[in-house]
Write a structure and sequence with these properties.
With 89 residues, the chain is mainly beta. It has no helices and eight strands. The model has no long low-confidence stretch (mean pLDDT 81).
Length: 89
């Protein structure tokens, strides 16, 4: 079982989408939660291939973070989004 789920930031029991793109959370009023994981798989004598990240996040600077989710089963990017803040926010 492999799973991935992303939630809008939730503040005061309401999603904080603010009509923004679902790929950018700018000056969000609360944390954005991401659930990602997979169960163990025992496949003896299976050779390792070229590794590819499942979830990667990059901190570009004090105001920009980017998260990228790769599906091993589908061999493609299934989600990515930015968290950005104005300086001093």
């Amino acid at each position: 079982m492999h799973s991935y789920e992303r939630f809008y930031p939730i503040a005061n029991m309401f999603p904080q989408d603010n009509g923004q793109s679902s790929y950018t959370y700018h000056n969000a009023a609360a944390p954005a939660y991401v659930i990602t994981g997979s169960a163990g798989c025992h496949t003896p004598k299976t050779p390792f291939g070229t590794p590819h990240p499942g979830s990667v996040f990059s901190v570009y600077n004090h105001t920009h973070i980017h998260l990228y989710q790769w599906s091993v089963d589908q061999h493609k990017n299934i989600d990515n989004f930015w968290i950005t803040k104005d300086i001093g926010h």
